[in-house]
Design the sequence.
């Protein structure tokens, strides 16, 4: 084993490639966790918005369960040929959500009331 | 390549466009999806930072529009980053299916330029509010 392999947890030898990296199931789990982190990011942004504008904050928070649900692996198992179609729909949903949230934030930033110096107090 | 041709290469004509070629290793498809999600979270972080600057920071003395000058571009760039991330996902997925080399990503360049630009604008706003 080289120094690089000894220190780098991502390094893959023949054994690792057959267990960890070679397992599509773990890739699915990592992707599912990534979706969960994205949902948490939306929840955090919704919480920040809730402080300034209740309706906008609730709108953003309403997106969180949808994103969490989109990231759940299918119970029946997804055939590999189904991935692109389903993936495209999920990715478009996330893109639309982020752009929508950015537009709402822009409206709040430009038109909404602010509490200047709230971080200073 | 014409402008419409570049757009067509960037934007899928429908799900059929993403079903050309052969099915890649699912791990590559998942990795592409995770990369897109990571960029989406980065875009959300930019939006949160922009909103926080406008809504929560104290006003800069002698620079009344300072908070908006710093916050609004961050929010706009968050939206731009999300849309570009979608385009990158489409291009990568298409390349994976066709067995082509992965296209070069413009996302790190956009993010680096954004951070550098915002750092310069922040320094200018701080200097004006402190010196004048």
Sequence:
């Amino acid at each position: 084993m080289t120094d690089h392999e000894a220190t780098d947890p991502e390094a893959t030898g023949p054994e690792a490639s057959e267990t960890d990296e070679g397992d599509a199931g773990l890739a699915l789990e990592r992707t599912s966790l990534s979706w969960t982190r994205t949902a948490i990011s939306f929840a955090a942004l919704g919480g920040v918005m809730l402080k300034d504008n209740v309706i906008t904050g609730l709108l953003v928070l309403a997106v969180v369960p949808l994103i969490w649900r989109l990231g759940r692996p299918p119970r029946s198992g997804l055939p590999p040929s189904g991935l692109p179609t389903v993936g495209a729909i999920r990715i478009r949903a996330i893109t639309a959500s982020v752009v929508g949230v950015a537009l709402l934030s822009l409206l709040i930033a430009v038109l909404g009331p602010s509490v200047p110096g709230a971080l200073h107090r | 390549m014409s402008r419409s041709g570049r757009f067509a290469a960037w934007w899928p004509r429908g799900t059929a466009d993403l079903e050309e070629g052969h099915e890649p290793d699912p791990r590559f498809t998942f990795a592409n999806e995770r990369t897109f999600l990571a960029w989406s979270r980065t875009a959300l972080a930019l939006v949160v930072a922009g909103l926080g600057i406008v809504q929560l920071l104290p006003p800069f003395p002698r620079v009344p529009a300072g908070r908006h000058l710093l916050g609004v571009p961050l929010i706009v760039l968050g939206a731009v980053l999300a849309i570009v991330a979608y385009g990158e996902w489409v291009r990568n997925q298409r390349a994976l299916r066709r067995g082509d080399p992965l296209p070069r990503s413009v996302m790190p360049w956009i993010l680096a330029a954004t951070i550098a630009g915002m750092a310069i604008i922040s320094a200018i706003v701080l200097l004006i509010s402190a010196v004048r």
